[in-house]
Amino acid sequence: MKKILYLLTFTLLLLSFTSCNWDVWGGEFIDYGEGSANANASMFFTGTKPEHIKVTASRFSDEIRISWDRVLGADYYEIFRSEYSESNDIENLSWTRLTDTSVNSTSYTDTNVEDGVVYAYRVRARSFLYRDVLGNYSDTGYGWTLSPPQQVEASQGESTTSITVTWSSVKSVNGYMIYWSDTGYDGTWNPVTTVLPNTATKYQFRPASAYYGKTLYFYVTAVSSGNNESDSSIRRQGYTHVEGAPEAPSNLTATKGESTDSITLSWTAMSPSDGSYDWEIYRRSGNESETLIYSTVRGDDPPEEENGMMSYVDESNLSAGVVYTYTIMAIGVIENSDGSSQTVNGSPSSAEGYLLSPPTTITEKRINDTNNGFVFTFLSPLGDDGLTDLKYNVYAKVSASDSFSSLPIITEDLDGRESYTIEIPYESGGYEYFDIRVQRGGLESIGYSSIGGDLAVARPVKAKGYSASDNLYLDSMTVQDGQYPVLLQMDKDDNATSYTLRVWKNQPSGVDTTAAFEYEVTPEVDEEGGTYRIEIEKEATPEVGSTYYYAVRGKDRLGREGEWSDIDSGYPAITGAELIKHMQVFCLKPWEYLNTTLLGSELTEKWRGSTIYSLVSQAGMGSLGSAEESGNASGRMTYNASYSPPASGSVSFSYTNFGEKSYMQTNGNYNMNVSLSGSGSCSGGITISGMYPATIGFTNISVSNQKFVGTYTVTQRNGHTSEEVSPDQEVR
């Protein structure tokens, strides 16, 4: 009788062992502690923003240097830049990524910079391991080159003993240096003084008396706090006034928009008491150095004189859309008190002139949001004062290789407005290139394209910065049937309003290969405004454990398509519950899912005939013993059951890279110790490797009435926080 009771007790114990739900994964047993996270989590890339970004300002003349603190777990960094002015809204800056390759240090030198431009910079980190988890952007830093002073001027005949040099201040510099020469712009330059303070914007240069009335040349540099010196400013000429020098020419004028290739100067002829004056004519535009375009001494063709007026035609290297300032002075000879003679500069006269010019600034060129066409807005061209009879003409062509239409497609009067807006509807196969010209009477300017390129609205470009995510979870993602969407990311393309997406289950030979799934999708813009995001529908990626291949092609509002992107691969992240389901079937206890759709017929046949199944399916002493099985994809599983009198037993499983599918393998072990009632404890640890690396903590799991109770702590390496998951998961 005692023997029968003993056998019954042992049978109940074995039944409790074999019926318990062994849904645990992890590696060697890791005790996280109650409510704690993985102690190694801090070693992984978390996407924090780079701190303490520093950008040089007025430090180097040809580069800007950026530095930041290291981000834990980051493998490389991306640097973004935008031009900035105080009128900009920092939230609406248009950012451009500076590097297409990895920057694996915490500093970067930007050498593609221009003087006088303020640049905004920001940085984010990325990881090779988690290449699709984009880090947060750093704070914005601002920098600029050590630029020479602007608006440099030198006085001409305003004083008998000094020449005043003036300039505009430069931000964040230590001071200024002034240089002078008496041998021309390409002559020998000498410093005027030591470094002037950074508050200085004017200097009185007092030449030796031998230089009175002579042309002297000047430029200014800025000096940084590190004693670097900027490039030189533009050159300016100046001179003192000498008694008896010629007067300034009177009634000087320059033509404005009366020709497309020349500017004519005229002034009242001077009548010296004896002899004749020599002449010098200088020209400059904007903040440029003067150019000597005429000199009597040099032997240039002289100005013409008729009816008491002098005239000179300038047709050398002129550009439309540029206002030129002309300075004319007479060069005279005076006698000194000792009987010697001296050549001196006369007082100057200045006037502005320009060619008949098209609009030189297009403030907007875009596709019409509402009318499927083009919109151009241009600023008022030179000469548009509302009084002069001017009009603008728009010419067009279909392709770059065509000629512009012989007649304008639009003609409108210029009436002195600050800007003009043109709307041109688009028709399939119609005009895409435009040219704007200004007309004055029978004279028409050159085209805008001659000075700034045609106005074609660009098609979407091939996606840059394009990538598909691998096992990525983000808080913003919506789960569907246990699966999170694959995230496609690319640099923002202002010309693309939608994308055609192609998805392949097997790696295609090229983008023209027939896709398993294709649809059109509208991208989302990330919070920073520089990246497009597309979440792939689950219908396109239905199978857990499969890698899919993706390519996109942008489409603009006119329906014109750009070039296909490169093909990238990726696969969705899954929930903890979905992961446990696949782990149970393919890595932990396949025999419990015989004939299920997920396990399939081939694996059902394998496990129905396995030694482990023959042991765990028997009650009583038949369940005792050990067995080992190899995985269909990799590794091995080991089973062992033993009994310890009077009323406890142990059942254990161990796993060495075991997996029935290639996308998931287990390592570790699991053990149950229970009493006669079918209740007790469990211990061990399992890790999952493959496409869904993770660990499972089970300090909250115990055995009661032959069943697991509590929750597992599922910690995936996909950006998801730990999940509490019940071990009772249904399997399709």
Fold and architecture overview:
Among the domains are: 188 residues, no CATH class; 97 residues, Sandwich (Immunoglobulin-like), CATH 2.60.40; 84 residues, Immunoglobulin-like (Sandwich); 88 residues, Immunoglobulin-like, CATH 2.60.40. Helix content is 7%, strand content 38%. It contains 5 helices and 50 strands. A hairpin with a 3-residue loop joins strand 45 and strand 46. The longest helix has 18 residues.
Short description:
The chain is mainly beta and 732 residues long. It has five helices and 50 strands.
Q: Give the structural class.
A: mainly beta
Number of strands: 50
How far apart, in Å, are the first and last alpha carbons? 46 Å
Approximate helicity band:
under 10%
Mean pLDDT level: 86
Radius of gyration: 41 Å
- Unreliable stretches: 1-42
Biggest beta sheet summary: 8 strands, antiparallel
Number of helices: 5
Q: How would you sum up the global shape?
A: elongated
Q: What share of residues are in beta strands? A: 35-45%
If strands are numbered along the chain, what order do they take across the biggest sheet? 41-42-43-44-45-46-49-50
Descriptive keywords:
732 residues; mainly beta; Immunoglobulin-like; 5-stranded antiparallel β-sheet; 50 strands; elongated
